[in-house]
Amino acid sequence: MYKESTLSVQISSIVQETEHVKRFTLEIAKGKQLPRFSGGSHISTYLETPKGLLVRQYSLTSHPDDCSHYEIAVRLSEASKGGSRIWHQSMKVGDHLQISYPKNHFPLSFKARHHVFYAAGIGITPFISMMQELRDKGQTFELHYASKSKQYCSFYEFITQHYSEQSHFYFSEDNHRIPTLFLENHLVGTHVYFCGPETFIEHFVKAAKDLGYPKKSVHQERFSPPQLKRVKPFKVSLKSGNEIWVDEKQSMLDALLQHGLNVPYSCKVGRCGTCELPVITGDIDHFDFFLSEDQQNAQNCILPCVSRAKSDKLVMEIK
Amino acid sequence: MKWTGDLAHFPYPFKDSTYRYSNNSIPMKQPFCIEVTPSYKKEMLLKRKLLSDHPERCYQSLPHSITGQWEIVELLIDHLISQYPQHFSVEKENNSWIFFNKILDEKVEFIFGDENSLSCEPLFFISHHVQEDLIYMRQRDDDLYLDAGQLCFPANWSLAFNIGMKFKNIHHPIPGFKEEGLDQRILQFLMRLEAGTPWERLNWSLMAGDRLDTSLETFDQWGKLRKHVTRENAGELVHIRVEVQKLFRLPRTNSILFSIHTHLLSLEQLSTNREWLQQFYEILSELHAHIVEYKGISHYKASLMHYLEEQLERVKAT
Ligand code: HEM
Ligand code: FES
C-alpha cells in the first residue's frame, strides 16, 4: 500500500491555549529545515498507538516562512476515540513523531480582490497562516470569529494584537452570533472562506448559495475522515462473460494483468489516473487519491491499482 | 550535442512495443530534481550563451512569480549540495547565502528573499547552474498557469508564446489530447501533486540533427535538416530526443516546478542495443499517423524505416 514520505519532528513546547485547546511546537533536527508552506496549509500527524497508526490532520498556525519549527493547535474533542485525546493526554515535550509535508486543500484565491474569513471555534486555525500571507502581500481581508466566550477563544490575544483592525469576535455567551446577512454586503470580487463545525459550514454555504454567490468565490475547509481499509476478495466479470477472481493479497490491476488483459497503468499507487476503467454495476470501495468526490460517488469508474469492490462482484465494460 | 555517457544510463523511454499518449508519470525513487551529466560544462556554456544572446526567447516571468522563484532557488541548491557535495556547497547565515559552484569555480553571494541582492531574477540566476530547463506552473484558483520559465532547449515550442497560459491551452496542439479527455485527467493529477512526493515522466521525439536548442523561433535554421535524411545517413543524422521531466510541488506558493532535462542519442548509437532496435522499429511501424506528424517525423519516416530494417537484418546476420 502507498505510504507517503514523512518528516521526523520532536515536540519542543506545549502551551495550554484555552481549557480545551493546546498548542504544540514541532521542531526538526538541528541542521535540517522544514519546508515553507502556503497560507491555509495543514499536515498529517502520525501517532503510534497500541492499536496501530493514527493519522490526523491539523492546520499549521506558525509563520509560513519559518523553517525551524511548525505549530499546530489541537482541540480535545469529547467524542474523540484517539487523535485529540492522545495529543492532549499522552504527548510530552521531547516526544518524536512523523508528520507529512505541508499540503494545502484550502488555498487563498489568487484572483480575489478581498478575502473574508468566517471561523467558529477551532476552525480559526487555517486562517492564522492565511492572514499572515495576505498581510505580507499587502492584500485586504477581514475575520469574523465565533466562539463561546473570550475565555474559550483560541488565539484571542494573538489576533487582537496583530489583526485588531480586521477582526470581529462573536461570543455566544453574550448572545452574539455572526449574521449570515454579512454575506450580502461584500463587494464584487470578494471571496469568502468558512471553517468550523460541519453545521456552521453548511449554514454559511447555504446562505451564500441562496444569495447567488458564485461557487468559485466560496471556499470551505473539510478534513477528510480517516479511511478504513477493509480488504476482501471479489469477482470481476468481463464483457466476454469471463470472470476473474481477485484475492485479498493482490490488487485488481495485478489480477487483470495476470489474466492477459491489456490495462494501461503507470504509478500503481492510485495517483496518476492512468489505469481508470469503467464499471457497469457493483459497489466500489475507492482508495485512490485521484478521483474527485463526485467522480467517486458516481460509482461508474475504478482505479484498479488500489481500489476494490465492496460488493461480491464488479461488472466491467472491458473485454 | 550527443550522448557521451554510458549507454546503460540513457533514459530509454519505452516499456511496450506500442506507443499511445497517456499519463506515464511515476513517483520518483530518488527525489532529486537535477542531474549533473558528463556534458555539464559544455551544456552550461551553451545555455549561458543562449540566455545572454536571446533573453526574451529563453526567459520569461510574470511579476507575481518572484516568491515562487526563490522557492525554486532553495529547492535546487538543496538538491545540488545533497546530491553533489563535491561540486556544490552553500554557506548560510540567517538569510545571507554564499553559493559555490566548484565545477565552474564560481561563488555567488546574495540575501535569500531579497531580489536586489542579485543582479537578475532568482530563477534566471539558478538557471545558470543546472542543465535542466525550468518551468514554474503557478496554481491560481482551480488551474495551473505558466507564470515563469527558463527554456533553452525546447522541443519545438515557444516560451514567449506560452507565458501566462493555462495547462490545457499549452497542450492544445497535441493531437487527440483534448478529444480523449487526457488534458483534464492530467490536470487533475497535477492539482493533486503533493510536496514530498515528486514524480517523473519521459517524453520522446525524433529530430534530424543534434541541436539542443530547437525552439519554435529558430525552426527555419534546424527544421530544414529533416529534408536531408536518407537511408544512408539516418543513423548519424537522426536522433531520439528524450526529455526527463520532473514534477515537484512547491509548498510555499502551492505551485509546481516542472523541470526538463533533454538527452540526445543518435540512431546509430541506439541500434547498438538489439532489443532497443527491435522495439523502436515496432513502435515506429505502428505509430499513429497524427503522432508521426505532430512529432515531425513524416518527412523522413520512409528513409528511417529503411535504415532500421537494414540494421535489423545486419543484426540477424551476426
Ligand atoms: C505541468 C507542467 C507541464 C508543462 C509546462 C508542459 C508543457 C508542454 C509543452 C509546452 C508541450 C509542447 C506543446 C506544443 O506542441 O506546443 C507539451 C507536450 C506534451 N505534454 Fe506537457 N507539460 C507539462 C506536463 C505534462 C504532463 C504531466 C504530461 C503527462 C502525460 C504531459 C504530456 C505531454 C505530451 C504527451 C506532450 C506531447 C509530446 C510529444 O508527443 O512529443 N505534459 N507539454
Ligand atoms: S496506475 Fe496510477 S492510478 Fe492506477
Give a written overview of the molecule.
The complex is a heterodimer of chains A (319) and B (318). Helix content of chain A is 16%, strand content 31%. Chain A is α/β, with parallel strands linked by helices. Chain A has three domains: 95 residues, Translation factors (Elongation Factor Tu (Ef-tu), domain 3); 108 residues, Nucleotide-binding domain of ferredoxin-NADP reductase (FNR) module (Rossmann fold), CATH 3.40.50.80; 83 residues, Beta-grasp domain (Ubiquitin-like (UB roll)), CATH 3.10.20.30. With 318 residues, chain B is an alpha+beta fold. Chain B has one domain. Chain B is built from 13 helices and ten strands. The radius of gyration of chain B is 20 Å and the shape is globular. Chain B starts with 25 loop residues before the first strand and ends with a helix. At the A-B interface, loops of A face strand 1, strand 6 and helix 7 of B. The structure holds protoporphyrin IX containing FE (HEM) and FE2/S2 (inorganic) cluster. FE2/S2 (inorganic) cluster binds next to loops of chain A.
